[in-house]
Specification:
Elements lengths: L1 H10 L3 H10 L2 E7 L5 E10 L4 E6 L3 H8 L2 E8 L7 E12 L13 H12 L10 E6 L3 E6 L10
Antiparallel strand pairs: 1-2, 1-4, 2-3, 3-6, 4-5, 5-6, 5-7
C-alpha cells in the first residue's frame, strides 16, 4: 500500500501544473445525481480561475434540475491515449448558481473574471456573448485529485 501511495504522490500535479492544465483543456465531464440516486454525466466547456471551476450550463438541462435538488457534483478533465500519457483532474464538491438564470449579461462583478476567461478561451472575444439559455455554475472544490502518468517515464519509473 505504501508503494501505491508513493506512486500517487509522484504522479500528482503541482498547483502550477494543475492551473496550466486546466487553462489548456477545453472539455470536462460533469457528474450529478438524481433524487433517486441515478447518476448523470455530460460534457461541458469550462474555465478555471485558480480557485473554482466555472461551468456555463443550459438552465433547462437535466444537470441544472438535478443540481437544484442536490448540489453535489464531480468534474473530470482528462486526456491521453496511451497509459503512459494519461493525465487528468477530478474536482468534487457542491455547485452553486451564480448570477441570473438564465444569464442575460446584467452586471454581476463576481462573473467578470470567469466570463472574460471563458469568452477568450472559447470565442476569441473580450466579452461574453449571452444567449438567454445558459447560466453559471461555480464549483469551488472540496477535493481535488490529479494524475499525470507521464511523470513515471524515465529512470525513476518502477
Amino acid at each position: 500500500m505504501a508503494a501505491i501511495q508513493r506512486r500517487g504522490r509522484r504522479i500528482m500535479m503541482t498547483d502550477a501544473e494543475r492551473d496550466t492544465y486546466l487553462a489548456e483543456q477545453r472539455t470536462c465531464r460533469v457528474a450529478t445525481v438524481s433524487a433517486d440516486g441515478r447518476p448523470h454525466v455530460g460534457a461541458l466547456w469550462f474555465t478555471w480561475d485558480g480557485t473554482s471551476i466555472w461551468l456555463y450550463s443550459i438552465t433547462r438541462s437535466l444537470r441544472w434540475s438535478q443540481l437544484r435538488k442536490d448540489p453535489r457534483i464531480a468534474v473530470i478533465v482528462d486526456d491521453g491515449v496511451e497509459y503512459a500519457d494519461l493525465r487528468g483532474i477530478e474536482l468534487a464538491g457542491a455547485a452553486a448558481s451564480v448570477g441570473e438564470a438564465p444569464r442575460t449579461g446584467e452586471p454581476y462583478p463576481e462573473l467578470d473574471v470567469p466570463e472574460r476567461l471563458f469568452a477568450a478561451k472559447y470565442f476569441g472575444m473580450d466579452t461574453m456573448p449571452h444567449d438567454g439559455r445558459h447560466a453559471w455554475l461555480r464549483l469551488t472544490p472540496q477535493s481535488i485529485t490529479s494524475w499525470d502518468f507521464r511523470k513515471l517515464a524515465g529512470p525513476s519509473a518502477p
